[in-house]
Amino acid sequence: MSVIILGHKSPDTDSVTAAIAFAELQKALGVDAVPGRQGELNPETALVLEKFGYAAPELVTDVSGRKYMLVDHSDIKQAPDNWDQGELMAIVDHHKIGDITTGNPIFFCAMPVGCTGTVLYKLYTDLYKKPIPEKVAGLMLSAILSDTVLFKSATCTPDDKAAAEALAKIAGISDMMAWGMEMAKAKSAVEGVAPRDLIFRDYKDFDMGGKTVGIGQLELVSLDLVADMKDALYAEMEKVKAEGNRHSVFLMLTDIMKEGTELLAATDDPGVVDKAFGTALQGRSVWLDGVMSRKKQMVPPLQKAFGA
Amino acid sequence: MSVIILGHKSPDTDSVTAAIAFAELQKALGVDAVPGRQGELNPETALVLEKFGYAAPELVTDVSGRKYMLVDHSDIKQAPDNWDQGELMAIVDHHKIGDITTGNPIFFCAMPVGCTGTVLYKLYTDLYKKPIPEKVAGLMLSAILSDTVLFKSATCTPDDKAAAEALAKIAGISDMMAWGMEMAKAKSAVEGVAPRDLIFRDYKDFDMGGKTVGIGQLELVSLDLVADMKDALYAEMEKVKAEGNRHSVFLMLTDIMKEGTELLAATDDPGVVDKAFGTALQGRSVWLDGVMSRKKQMVPPLQKAFGA
């Protein structure tokens, strides 16, 4: 059976495209690998796959008895539930080092850059010296534009920009910023979507000081898009919090044009927001100017506040 | 203060030389880094440093408040005791993925090869494209010869051989096997060494199913060298076991010419050896033919036997 390659739960564009791109690289290296995904495609990812002519990878949530590889995470909470019942072969990531362990040596490559696509670009080009197929380059470029919010995110590094420029050339995309805005608009699509689906569109659970803390994020070209939905979103966040025995559920409403985030908080301890960001909640939310990255600007201060 | 780079506790040649080689690479990349070590040099490592003109790196066992990088391990039990009081910046390794986690994204590169020196060779040559200084190449070559037991170990891969050949050229070592035998003889030096020091010469504690299991290894050109010392070694192993509240302490007496290991076992559950290796202890020891690698042939079956 083929080695299955999976991004994290509630997959985003990076997780889905990295699974495809890493599978292509593995095949070039002689490994029989196929991409998978742990959940539904968001509208941005669907647009990206359509543009470059890819079908949605197979939905896989069970890796027991299978060989598998992970991209875009190394956290147990974001891996398939029975991750320890299969054989993990490799990890490629750009996040903090998570709590997945193995019994045998494996390939694990993480770099502190803005996107798994950038790490994969270096693996293709520098480490394994394999040509990147045109369509695969398009996927990796799209992931970089998405994860770095068109290079505006605090997570964006010079390596991400350099990789994006090289990939745009290979993919034959002459105006990558225009393509990035098209993606951002697709990502902003909220009309007619159930609040629950919006919360889980780009959602991750974290272990913070022994407590489960969920953080969702919606990247929007304008917060006006969700102005009428906040009550419904908040009510659903309270449900998600209660169901999962979570300490807190946060939803980042990130305005990619104004470059900041309105943070909605359903939490057992509202003081934790003040402790983490130096700004207290006003009712159920607070505006965090300049905050666009969950990974770099939300998770570390929250983990500190939780004493993790 | 400089970034300190450390291998594992009870450092071997790979841990010490990888700290030096990775520090040189970091300096070439503009990072102010210095190598350190967590313990005393073994006779082989002392010989290697002398041959290539290096002093012993600084002894560092406390990283609180310091920036640091780890080489040759990613396990909490092998890291400095207060690893979580400093800021971990990078990991380069070739073992199983351990339980060290971070709050921020960092560089983490592990590959399933026989030696950290081989991973560093790829980082120098392929990823960062920096020239390897002649003496650094000598260190890295020596680590590969040591860790792969002159390419005989089950952990040895074609990548290790290719790296060793390239490094021998850079270092100007025309007969690397002769140099490897010279190192092996130095590693075999046991005369006049206290049993405790022999146990800890190349020793690691592991968490196996919640129990602490220590595994030391002596690589010897002949088991005759320790024939008269087994009673004393065993008595000391029992002490080490009691002191550390360990479930088991194993000592691998590895005959690198006969390519096998006499395993001494001080354990609360002698049956675990049969369970792991399909061969029961005869008294306090058993011969395991073909077993030379702790990482690949001891740890995985033991972890399985412990249900970890």
What does this structure look like?
- Two copies of one chain form a homodimer.
- In chain A, strand 1, helix 1 and strand 2 form a beta-alpha-beta unit.
- Chain A has two domains: 184 residues, inorganic pyrophosphatase (n-terminal core) (Alpha-Beta Complex), CATH 3.90.1640.10; 111 residues, Roll (Diaminopimelate Epimerase, Chain A, domain 1).
- The longest helix of chain A has 16 residues.
- In chain A, 37% of the residues lie in helices and 21% in strands.
- Chain A has 308 residues and is α/β, with parallel strands linked by helices.
- Chain A is globular, with a radius of gyration of 19 Å.
- In chain A, 51% of the residues are buried.
- In chain A, helix 1 runs parallel beside helix 3, helix 4 crosses helix 6 and helix 9 packs across helix 10.
- In chain A, the strands form two sheets. In chain A, strands 3-2-1-4-5-6 form a six-stranded parallel β-sheet. A five-stranded mixed β-sheet of chain A has the order 7-8-9-10-11.
- The interface between A and B is medium-sized, with 34 and 34 residues.
- Strand 6 of chain A pairs antiparallel with strand 6 of chain B.
- Chains A, B: It catalyses: diphosphate + H2O = 2 phosphate + H(+).
- Chains A, B: InterPro entries: DDH_dom, DHH_sf, DHHA2, DHHA2_dom_sf.
- Chains A, B: Keywords: Hydrolase, Manganese, Metal-binding.
- Chains A, B: Its EC number is 3.6.1.1.
- Chains A, B: Its cofactor is Mn(2+).
